[in-house]
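User: Hi! I'm working on a homework problem where we have to compare a predicted structure to a textbook description. Could you give me the structure for the chain below?
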Amino acid sequence: MAIISYIRKIFGWFDRQEKQDKEIKDIKEEQTILTKGILACLKGLHEQGANGPVTEAITEIEAHLNKKAHGG
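Assistant: Happy to help. Predicted structure tokens:
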């Protein structure tokens, strides 16, 4: 009986890990969408003449997205 209980715990652990991996993937996808939305808003502000922090934020976000896209 102890062996069966131990095996169930192992399978339970793997199931939780799989569920957590999916949740992390979903969160990362959502963050990417939100980041791209923020970037679009900042670019809209930049087109209307906003500079300074807007330009810096655009540069930083684009650098971050580029780094992530190339495995960084």
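For your comparison, note the following. Residues 41 and 47 are 10 Å apart (CA to CA). Residues 2-47 form the longest helix (46 residues). Good luck with the assignment!
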